[in-house]
Structures are given as C-alpha cells and as structure tokens.
Amino acid sequence: MKTLTVSVYRFDPIIDNSGRLESYSVEVNDGARILHVLHNIHDYIDPTLSYRYCCGSGQCGSCAVRVNGEPVLACMEEAQDNMVIEPLKLAVTKDLVVDLTENLGAIASLIPKAEFVMPTKEQIDRIKPLRSCIECLCCVSVCPAMDVTKFFGPIAMRQEMRLSLDPRDANDRVSEAVEEGLFTCTSCQACWKVCPKDIEIPGKAIEKLRALANRKGLTLPRHQEVAALIQSTGRSVTRSEPTFLEQVGDVIEPNGQVKGIVGFFVGCMYNMRLPKTAFDAIEVLRRNGIRVVIPKEQVCCGSPLIRTGQLAFLDSLKRRNIDAFVIRGIDTVMTMCAGCGSTLKNDYRTPFVLKDISEILTTYGIEPPARLPIKATYHDPCHLLRGQGIRDQPRSLVKMVVDLVEMPSICCGSGGGVRSGNPDEAAALGNRRGEEIKKTGADIVISSCPFCEFHISEHTDRPVKNITTVLLEGYKEKDKVS
Ligand code: SF4
Ligand code: SF4
Ligand code: FES
Description:
The protein contains 23 helices and 16 strands. By secondary structure, it is of the alpha/beta class. β3 and β4 form a beta hairpin. α17 packs across α19. It is globular. Bound molecules: iron/sulfur cluster (2 copies) and FE2/S2 (inorganic) cluster.
C-alpha cells in the first residue's frame, strides 16, 4: 500500500461559478491506476465526485481525463504522487465529466448502398488501422485546429476515411471531409500521440483523404500553386537572396580534428529564405569537429506535397534526394528543418541514417559557449517533438548558453499547408503561441524549424532565433572575452 497526494478538478454547475483543484490524500495498492484513486476518493472521502468509467480495461473510452495536462485513460495509467487530474479540454458537465454530445454527434455513420456489397478481405485489412477507435475524445481535446475553426476534428476525419474505404457505404466521404474542415489540420500529430489505440490519424486518415480530394480536384488553389512551384523549380518557396547552396562549398572541413562526418540536407526555407541561419549552423558544426558534405543537386523533400495530398511527382523528388547522398557514400544525413527531418525519417526509405542537427551536436558533444545574460523560451516544432520524438537534445543545447523558461508545447499553426491555405487559422494559432511566449517573460524565443521561426516571428515582439544562431552568439561572446 502507498499514500498518494493528488489534486482533482471539482466543478458543480449548480453551486460553483468556476472550477477549482481540490487536494486529496488517498491510500492505494502499489500499481494502482488513476481510476482506483478516483474510486477511493468517491467511496471513502467525497461521494459527490463525478467521473465516468465502464470497462476498467481500456476498451470503452469513457474514463478519459487529463493527468498533468496530458489526456489519458484513467483505467490504464498508473497513479503517481502529486498528479493533477482534470477533465478533458471540452465543456465540463460536472467535475471530471465532459459533454461528449457534439463531438460524438459529428461522427458519420455508414449509409448502405441500395445494392448488397460485401467487403473483401483486402478491403477489411485496409480499414483495420482506423477501426479500433474507442471514442474517448483524447484526440479531440488536443486538436489546435478545432480551437480556432469549425473543424469537425480528428475523430470525424478518421471515420470519414474509414467509410471511404468501405465498399458498402454510399456517400461521398471525401467531399464531406473537405466540408468538415479537412484542410484545417496543421499536421501537428498531437491527436496521434495521445490516442490510446495508436491510430495514426494525420498519416492514415487526413493525408489519405487529402490525396483522394486531390483526385477529385478539391485541393486548395494555394496548395496547387506550391506543387506547381516544386515541379518547375524543385523548391517549395522562391528565393529572396542568393541561396545557401549557391554560396557554400561542397565539403566544409572542421576547424580541428574530424569527430564526425555528415551529409547536410538543407531544406527549401534555409536554402532560399534563411541562408544566414544555415551558415550559423555550419560555423557551429565546424567549431565542433563535424565535416559537412553538401550535395548541390538536392531538392525539396516533398513534405508540402505529402501533407496536402499531392503525390503525382513525389517519387522523383525522393529519388533525386536519396541519390544525391548515396553517390557520395554518406551514411548519416543531417537535417536542421524539423519538417524535412520528419519527412525524410518517416516518409522515405533511405539507405542512410537521418539525424536532426540537435542529435548530431549532442551525440558528439560541443565546446561550451559563453553564457549570454538572457532568458529564453523554447518552441517545440511539432515535426521535431512529435514527428521525430526529439525533446531533450535541443533543450540541453539551449541550456548551455541561456536560461530556459518553459512554455506549453503547442502548435504555432504554420504546418500542414495551413499557413498558405488557411492564413486566418494560422494567424489565430500564431497569436495563441504569441500569448504563451509573453507569459514566460522571456527575452527571446528559440526554435529549430524555419517554418515555425518564420511564423512565430510574426506573432511575437521578441526576437525568434534558431538554436545554432544562439550557440554561435555564445561562441562569439567567448572569443571576445578570451
Ligand atoms: S494533426 Fe493536429 S491539427 Fe491535425 S487533426 Fe491531429 S491534432 Fe488536429
Ligand atoms: S481516435 Fe484515438 S484518441 Fe481519438 S477518440 Fe478514437 S481512440 Fe480516442
Ligand atoms: S473505463 Fe473503459 S477505457 Fe477506461
């Protein structure tokens, strides 16, 4: 047995104007789940505590709550001391019970065709990854697009894709999904990462529906323009100055002994719009013993095409990029754009290993820079945090040079084609990011994705800098002093 102290959200609409956290001390068995803690409070301390549950075994989805801010199933998650248990971020009916009506009502039902049709085994297998939803609404409670638009949400998109694969269904599910906000998804992957059934909604439902929408001519005009630009130039953005690849050498040798060798996949934004940041990265790598090989024939990774469902010439881009590194015998390719890194790691099959620059720098270790007398906050790019599972490495680099003050890891609104296709939504999410930045009181914002850096800088009055730029500032300060 052990005694845990937990905080639980309490709100009774009949007597309370607003909710509050109440602290409880409960005695539970070792290995007890959060649901056992709630039972204990209800049975021995306060029988008015309201919460939902049914199966107690991760099957019904009714017990979903937020624990320390993250949606989980109360019956599956082990109880921890000092945890904060709150309802999902949905309209609260009482205590931990939320109103499910609107979101469950938005899930489409199968409309049978007039004629009798039986799905084949292959069709059933294709539907399977989308079928295991237990309607817990964890995904809905974290979706940024739903906060600022009328998007029906990840659970509704999962069902539309599932029905579009079902030969018995009579409706046009793709057009329906477009109407329900298919193009408002920012590809942040938050829904997938909290799903207790591990349903890959962004890749297996949303991107697939967008590809089907493309075949029906429903791709947003702005997304079509980006695809046309990639097809004609190999790049997803136009240049604003001489590109990084035009200015840099083929191989950059480190200042001292060679500790490691990487190929550098630059990405469209750092190549065409932010070459100075890419040069800052090169300086940091040189200073820390990394030889950098830079194939000039590399092109766009194809991320803007994959995220918006425009796949017609994607394979030729992939081939050109893979060949560019393979013919140079490179076994480790480094990215510094979170979106490119996530795409190369998850949407390519490469004969080489892919590493984000923060992984390279922390693996080989870096010379400590001078500390700068500023306070910084760090924005987790969705495609680095959730797309590549990289959280600690950037933070350990940031902490070497400045004081870090944390803020919630929320989407800035620039991904998934939203910045180009739905600028109002992107601005609303950018403003929300800006508000969180303001609350930290930080002097600067640090990130490691050109799209995030570019977008956030429009929604905050603090300077937004890449990690490598800040490290380089630390080195320059060190050189000045010594
Ligand atoms: S990927 Fe992000 S924006 Fe898209 S449905 Fe999932 S949570 Fe919402
Ligand atoms: S998709 Fe996953 S997170 Fe969303 S309701 Fe279904 S089971 Fe829950
Ligand atoms: S009680 Fe059914 S999933 Fe938790």
